[in-house]
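User: Sequence for Acetyltransferase below. Tokens please.
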Amino acid sequence: MSTEIIRPFHPADAPHLLDICLKTGDNGKDGTRLYSDPWFIGQLYVMPYITYDPDLCLVIVDQEVPKGYVLGASHTGNFYRWMEDFYLPPLRMHYPQTMRCSSDTEQFFLARLHSDKSAVPVTREHPAHLHINLLPEIQGRGYGSELINQFIKQLRHMDVPGVYLHTGTNNSAAVRFYRKQGFSILEENRSSVKMGKRLDS
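Assistant: Structure tokens for Acetyltransferase:
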């Protein structure tokens, strides 16, 4: 019998979410070997969200152990301004541009850390964005779809007109999955695909 449930984020979940972010940090595969600091990637893609708006984080747990999550921001522009003003300055001091990286991937995200988030363009059609990660053991069982559906339901209650996400250009399985959830490609380059979904139609 299945013992997994989806519930709101609890503060005690944070270390587990950081670990999930790392274990899925190589286009959905274990990214441990890519990072000199195992918490680095989660400091970029987990901690700011559960700090800024923990109510927009949903977690799938098996006997209270997190196995996956979805999180995001209802207004990307406001979120990135908060990051620039409050969250990123101490993080940039902790991870300086001179940091020795273990891989090109870590170097890429270090450059992202030191880029100006307030300059990220935000469209009126898709002001929200999300990140979702599930450990391999619970993938392919419908939980990803349910996490996205519940997240989108929250956004609709907030009258958010649209949401977007990014995935790797080489992650064709993720692109197929998001298409099934009603997302379409908005932009594409050599490294990433931006996909969006309107919520007001």
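The first strand starts at residue 4 and ends at 8.
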